[in-house]
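Researcher: Next entry in the queue.
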Amino acid sequence: MKLVRTIAELRDALEPNRNETIALVPTMGAFHEGHLSLLRAARAEADVVVASLFVNPAQFGEGSDLNGYPRDEAHDVSLAEAAGVDILFAPDVAEMYPPGFQTWVDVDELGARLEGVYRPGHFRGVTTICLKLFNIVRPWRAYFGQKDAQQVAVLRRMILDLNLEVELRVLPTVRDTDGVALSSRNARLSPEERERARALHRALATRDAEQARELLRDLDVDYVEVADFEPRVLAAAVRIGKTRLIDNVILEGDTE
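Model: Structure for this entry, 256 residues:
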């Protein structure tokens, strides 16, 4: 596996493979089984697998948990290599946002609801960094998890609107044995908070917004809403202590 830090290094590393199928798995690191499921799928379906490891400051608002976001690059490198990643792109902030950076991508309507209400500017950061990665890597496919259903919907809209030649592959949410969706932020939950977090999936499993809200009445709830994404989902976000968790379940077609 090659570990590269700059855009120029990444493009040079990919140049011999331009006629092969290239897969991209964008991440912010702190790998868990959810990330690994994406890496393994990419490895099974592509000739060349590129994973990015970049904690994107543009996705975090003021007073956010950017500084507290878990980071363990050495561990991530080891896991990426074991999963069969060919190139791990781990740039610093200045490489992706050089001095004077001022060009942003915004998906107005889809990015303004649900997460967009509680995390203003979040999806602007997501779409901008993903478009940059798509342009740099030029993948045939990019891999994301169903857990971030709104992110997937926003990226699909960007790809359609901007005529990008990349296919999104969306894999099912990976859950722990207690039903909690895997997230890098879960490590910050205390044992008591982890027990309370189990209520989120139990509530969503009703596939009924009113029932879910009732089951979550003891938590600090940002939203519980049906979202007409593709596929349609029941989505929720809650705060437990200092940790904010999101999750969703599919309401039609294939279920988790």
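Model: The two ends are 32 Å apart (CA to CA).
Researcher: Noted, moving on.
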